[in-house]
Each structure stands twice: as structure tokens, then as C-alpha cells.
Batch of 3 targets.
Target 1
Amino acid sequence: MSESQPSPEEPVRHTLLEDALALVVGCIFVATGLAILHAAGLVAGGMAGTALLVSQFVPLAPGLLLGPLTVPFLVLGYFAIGPLFALRTVLASIGIAALSLVVEDTVRLGVDSPLVAAIAGGTLLGQGMLMLVRHGTGLGGFGVLAVWLLNRFGWPIGRTAIAVDVLVLGVSAVFLELAPLLWSSLCALIMGAIVFLWHRPGVYVGASRMG
């Protein structure tokens, strides 16, 4: 192996600038995806889906709800993963909340096709979550749990995300009609598939400091 190609045991370390840019772009993807799904009356999986579900009953944008819903998991992130991970997760929650306010105030979304909303929203949420996780940041409480399970037991983040998606959609089935639930399931499937396919050992070897 050449010296210019580090082995998996010695992953390339992301720079602070790379981590900062990934946090900004990831937050933009997540906030935009949430706005599209919210306008279509759909939910997704994970904490994003939980925020979307709660937003059906309270007059707040889903991005604003991510922060309060994440708080209980930050203790786990701080002590079990590392202080930098917890700090970046807090910054991501603040960034998503702020961008959600910007989108709510400046963008008027009219969604005529739930199919397009499910595909676009799921893709943006999946790519946003993937970008954040790759750079040592959790997306909401379940994202923190997924990273902890990966570090502690080696469980793939995509597999954990799919399991959480099934749980969130199961709860959503109590409140949503059949058609929105099916479109939401498609969104969650796309979101989980993106993370599952592109966050596997050997596919991406870059790493960010957690502590």
C-alpha cells in the first residue's frame, strides 16, 4: 500500500474546516427536506419523523422541535461518545432550527405530488444525516443513539435507522390516514437506504474527532 493511501486502521482525519462546512451543508439539506415534508403533510423516520409528527399537533416548524426532542440524548452523546460530538450535535440542532425559521419566513411551498415530496424529502434528509454523521455529528436523539451503537457494538447506522423508522412509522399509523402513511413510508425507506448504502465500513474511511 502506498504512503499516499492510508489504511483503514489509520483513517484520514477531517479538518476543522471540513467539519464546519459539512455541518452547514448538512443542516441546509435537513431543514429543506423537513420543510418539503411538512408542506406535504408527511412524516419520515428517526427524530426528523418524530418532529414532523409532533408538528402536526403544535404550531411549530419541525426544525424547531428537533432541539427540545434531542436534549435527553445529549447526555449520552457527551459521556459515551465525546464532548466534541455533543457540541457539534447541539450546533446542528441550533442550525436546523434557525434555517427552518428562514425557510418558513422566506419560502412558500405548495406540494401537489406526495410522490415527489416523499422522494425529495427522503433524499435530502438522508444525505443531510449522512453528511452530519460522517463528520462526527448526530441528527437528533436517535442519531446520537445510532452513533453510540456503532461505536459500542459495531451496529451499522443504516440498520439502526431502519429499525427506528419502523417504530416511528408504527406510531404515525395511529394518527395518519393510509395514503400519507404509505408516502411517508417511502420517504423513510429512501432516507434509510441512503444512510445504509453509503455509511458502511470500507465505503468511507474519513473520520472526525469525537472527544
Target 2
Amino acid sequence: MREARRGLAETLSHIDSLLGDGRSREDVLDVGRLSLDSGVPREVVETLLEGGEPPAEDITDRIVRRFGHLRETRLRPDGSRHSYEEIAAAFGASRASLSNLLNSRRRTAGRGAEQRPGRSGGPLASTQAGIETFYFGQPNGWLSAEPETALDDALQSVLRGLEEQAADPMARLRHAHGLRRLAARAPQLAEEEIQLVTDWIDTILERRRAQDARGAQGAQGAQGAQGAEGEQGAQGQGVRRPGGQRAQDQGAPTPGADAPPRDVR
């Protein structure tokens, strides 16, 4: 629980650091979209973004609620909901297994109890995994994840976008160059050192692109020269001299030109 809160706080802090002057969280965070992606109710998303604590929720109630959220928001192409039979058949289960999950809601003990129940595996873990896979490959544990964890995961796409906009050297290492292992070690480096590494990689890539471009131009030039020579040869063979003779006939004797003069008596 504490780790989930810390992770969410760190993500929000990083987002804040990338906003720059004149922008606030409201400019980049769409509460409705975050609720859709995370399965966390809109009002709880707003509470978490403000640093508050979500209300207590039984883990089974959470699983059932998020299952209903998936059925309502991840629809068929025709706009209708997927049936229980269709979902269960996709992972070799029966409709009864889904009914068991939906009917296994447990309530927090005691009237008006405020304590948050401890996290457990929940009922029918294989059924949960099958549901998550059916709905477009939701990550394992999506149905039962704590609200802080679910929201943190949904915020990662926002964070990546801001990193790229800010040309963050770390983001360039992770995303533009795909050097995830190097990026993981980058916190040991100063910011100017990270910038130096990414600039060095950019220089190498730019040099390679320039070499490839010159090679492509050279190949095109060679092909053009060969084509020009062939065209000139073809034109030379087809040029006619005045009188209808071809240029290639130059120097060839005309009929009777070299014949000995006739002896006219």
C-alpha cells in the first residue's frame, strides 16, 4: 500500500516537473480518460490526484465493479456488450464460473467499518486472469489492483508524452534510442552527462543517415550515367544524313564511286 502511494506520488511529481511555465495538471490530465483506462471511479481519481486517500473497498467488490466497468466500456464493434458466455468460452471456462465470481461479494465486517481490507488473491484467480486477457490484454492484476497502482499505470502514457515534448535526455535514451538498460543506469549520471551521451548518439545516427543518403545519391548518379550513355548510343544509331543515309554509313562507298572510269571512245 505504501509503495503504491509512493509510486503514484513520484509519477505526479515527475509530471509536475515537466509541465513548465504556464501549464498545470488540468492542462494535461483528462480525469475521464484516466478513469476509463484505470477502472478507478472518476471521483476517486480526483481524490488521488489531490493527494487524498481513496475510500475503503473490499477487494472482491473491486474486482466485480471493474469487471462491470470493462463490460460497459469495452464493447463489441456493433456497440453491444460481450455476453458472459462469450467471455467465459474465450478462456475455457463456463458461465457458472463468472456467476460465482459475481456472487462472491464480501462485505467489510462490522457496521460502518472504515478500515481497508487486506489485499488477497480474490476468488477464482484463474477466472480473473481470463477476463483480463479477454478484454484486449489488460495487464495481469488489473481487476484487483489498488486504486493508486491502477491510476499510476494509467498515468504512464501521459508521462511519456511530456518527456518527449520536453526532449528529456532520459526519455530520448529510453524511447527514441531504445537504450533501456543504459537509461536504467542513468540516475548515476549528472544531467549534463546524460545530455552528452544522448547528443553523442544523435551525432552518430546523423552521420550514418548522411552516409546512407550519399550512397543512395551515388547509386542514382551511376544509374543515370549508364542510362545517358545508352541513350546517346541509341540516338547515334538512329541519326540520318541528308539524303536519307544513316550516320553510321559515313565513309561507306556510294554505289559506283570507286568503280574505274568507263573508257569513252
Target 3
Amino acid sequence: MSGAPTPLRTPGEAGGAGAAEPSGGAGRPGAAEPSGAAEPPGGAESSGAAEPSGAAGTSAAAGQDRAATSVTRPEPGRPGRIRRIARGTRLWYGRAVVTAAVLWLVYAVVRWLVSGRWHWSIMLDVVPPLILLGTPLLLLVAAAAACGRRRPVAAAVAGAALILALVTGSGLNWPALWREPGPVPAGALRVVSLNTQYWAMATGSDRLIALLRSRNADVYLLQEHVGWTPGLGEGGYWPLEDDAELRRAFPGYHIARRGELLTLSRFPIVAQSPVGPGPALTFGEPPDFGQVFAREKVLRTDLAVGGRVLSTYNVHITVPLALDNLNPFTDFDHDSYLRRKHAWRQAEFEALERDVAGNTHPAVIAGDFNATAAMRPLDELRRVARDATPANPSFLPLSWKFASLGEFGEDELFNRDLPFFRVDWAFTKGDTTLHRYDFLPTDGISEHRMQELRLSL
């Protein structure tokens, strides 16, 4: 018995009874394989043989679960109804924002191109600079909620409209962010300008005179020193014969007047002249007061100040349109009306610019220009005189609110405490130093704020 004995194995060990081989060993020739293939019940191979029937059962159950799930669960990659609705809403929202931004940019470009060059341009220019700035800002915010490529497109178009508003007359006073108005030196002149709204027709001239006297100005440049009968339009103006009252209220002041324009000065008046085409060019001779009021819109007064001559320009440029003339359902000739107003305004601006450019004296130009920062007509004047705005401490100077006298019926909509436009302006020229420029409230006496300049020669 030279062969090695076969080790004894327990049924639970690997190679136990279920894997038993003949005593002669695996390599003995002639070993009977059937005896090796016979396995006791419950062996390892027996449990493996039962697997097919169990796998089939598991597969059938999984199939039933998938079938049940497919009824209640959407197919992979297909969003639910709520998500589809949300996506569609954002899609149409993005298109709407892009469309609005494009339309606004087209309006802004066209408005700037035709401003002051076409008599119908006032219908585009009437929008206040606050809206010209605010609308593209709102569109930029709205663009952030758009989806896909519409977001950058909407943002780019709205940004272009915002840049255009900033560079073509936003009305923002950037120097106010860093300029600190210094003290006004002793002896500086005080010049006050105010559109008095038909000489305080709504509140009474006593309150107006008290307000003016409280400023103790050296020079007053006053517009709308005139009476007006509501309902008669351009034919309802009549002169105020109140020189005696003015001398009592402003003793020692010198008086210059022309039409609606009134200049009061502590300094002697050495010359005065109307600037512009005058009524003779349009109405013939002799003009009545209504014609003088309509066409005499700039009064130049030269003052003797400390051995020098200071020219003051009292300005009230023709209003471009009146709200009571905008009713499209009447037979009113709007085209002729706007054409006439546009021609008058052009003539008044051009005459003022020529006179200021040719004037060798230091000058102050102030009044109601009936023009916003976004309107082109002020550009030429800025080339021959210095805009006083940088000396104003406000970042957004505003001076005018609509306040009708009751005949137009827009009080509830427009008559608010805060102004939304700026139509009042001041300029200086020559050897002058402007120390401060302010807009002051008028306590309901006028729809305009008062302009006050402190300057030295």
C-alpha cells in the first residue's frame, strides 16, 4: 500500500461528501464516474439546480412591477405637465422681453435723431428723462428672468437703450457725486429766476412777492408776469400795470419789462433789448399784447455792477404744445399748430445763441426753456455758455410738475408734490465764477421751482 491515505473531510467542508471521489483517487485509471456524480440530496449542486425556477419567478415579479410603474410614472426624458407649462411660459416671457427691449431701443434712437429737427418730434420728446432711464433699467431686470439665448439678447438690447439715455441727456448731475460746494464768498451776487405761473394767479400775488423778498436777491428774472383768462388759450393774456406796487415791494430796484418778462435789479440798467424775431415778423404792426406775449421770449438787460457791465438774459422759450390742444377727436389742425410752435422755438433759440455768442460782457442766462435735458435745442447754447448744473448739489435736479388751473382736468393725475421734469435752466458766460446753484421750493405758488445762483464777477 504505497499510495497516500485520502484525508477525511466533513460534509460541510469544501470537497466534502458532495464532492467525494473513489478511494482510488481522481487520477486512477478506470475509476467509475457515476459513483462520483451521485450526490446526496440537499448538496451544493442540488441547491444550484433549483435556481432556474426561482429566477423565473423573480423575473416575472419584476416584470409586473415595471408594468405597474409604467402606468403612473412618465417615460424617462419627458417632463411633467407643470414643467412643460413653466418652460413654455418662460419661453413666451423671454420673447416678450426681447420684443419690448427692441421696440424701446427703436423709439430711443428715433427720438434722438428727430429731436428738435421735426415739428412732430415733440410727441416723442415729451417723455421725461426719468422714464428714458428707468425703462431700460426695468428691462434689464426683466431680462434676468428670461431663459436660453433670449436672456443675453434682451440684456444687450436694454443695455444699449440705457447707454443711449445716459449719453444723450439723462439729466443726471454727475459732479454732484464728488463736488462739495464751498462757502459763498462775501459780496457774491444773488440772482433769482422763477416762472411765476401767471403772477401767482392760483394763490395771489401777495404770497409771491413775500417769497421773492425772502431771497433778498440782487437780480430777479421773472417770467409770466401777466394775467390770463382760462379758456381763451393764446388770446387770453393781458398785461399787468403794477409798477407802483412793484416799487413799493422792491424799493430801490430798477425795472425792465417786455411782454411777460420782468427783470428787477439793484444795479442800474444801462441797456435793455428784446432778443429774437419779435412780433413784427409774424403779426405785423402794431402788435397787441397777446402777440407780444407770444413772440417776445428773451429780454436782455445790461447792468452796471461795480464798474463793469453784466448782461442778464430773462428767458421763457415758447411752450412746444399745450395739453388742451391734443384732443385727436376734434377738427383742430394739429400739424399746423406743431409746425408753428416748432418754428417759433427754433427762432428763439437761434437768436439767443447768436446774441450770447456775440456778447463781450459776462452774462447770466436763466429762465424757463421749456426743454428737458434729452432735447437737442439746448446743445447749441451749451457751446457758447457754461451750464450751471455742475454747481447744483442734487444728483438729479428737477424743477417742474404739471399743475393745471382746473380747465384741463388733469390735476388728479399730474398735480403732485414732487416734480418729474426739468425745464428750467441757467447758464453763465465770460469772467464769472459760479459758487452755487440751487432749486428752491415755491410752496405751491408756482408749478416751477425757483432757481438761485450765487456768483462773483
